Amino acid sequence: MTDVTINAADGGTFTGYLAKPASGTGPGVVVIQEIFGVNQVMREICDDLAAQGYFALCPDLFWRQEPGIQITDKTDAEWAKAFELYKGFSEVKGVDDLIAGLGVLRDTEGCTGMVGTMGFCLGGKLAYLMATRSNADCSVSYYGVGIEKNLDEASAITRPYLAHIAEKDQFVPPLAQQQILEAFSKVTRVTAHTYPGCDHAFARVGGAHFDKASADLANQRTADFLKEHLTA
């Protein structure tokens, strides 16, 4: 497992954490960070994907503000820092950087060229935007925040997209969820699952709202989805 350099489309370079499968060959997944940066949680997700046979790359999306952010959800100060970074983040630039990362992963020795995306929280929104704006082979969102603001793009989804939605998500109120599900129901390549009683980040191991049963279900659905669309 190592850090790699990615060239930004508008100049400059940034890094990403890359985990490789033991076999040395396989499809790829671009893992999209939460608001806490490429921290231990994200790296462990990459490592787990590598154990499943994928090349997994998590790009540092806060590099334009402060490279190398690796904070947790354990203190008020870290939450304040995370929200500060989130407020200063450009989704447009973030998608551009993810597309650059997608290219790097496809060109990585041993990668089959089939590459999907999987994002959490902020990354969940960006995975949706990758489904609408990029040529990723498939995409997965875990409790994406703010998707309802870009539902006019849903019709642009032409490749498989999977969304995990927390019913009690404090950052995605019921009206937003209703709008999202209604829009998704009209797109044939979209599958959406709602997790009753779950709050935001129910799949973040060690998080305040971690729900093992729901996390296990969502993760199994994701594993099946990635296998179907990246290894077929």
From TrEMBL:
Alphabetical list of Gene3D superfamilies matching this protein: alpha/beta hydrolase
One Pfam family recorded for the sequence: DLH
Coiled coil stretches, renumbered: none
GO molecular function, one term: hydrolase activity
InterPro entries for this protein: AB_hydrolase_fold, Dienelactn_hydro, Dienelactone_hydrolase-like
Domain Dienelactone hydrolase: 14-229
Protein name, UniProt field: Carboxymethylenebutenolidase
Organism: Skermanella stibiiresistens SB22
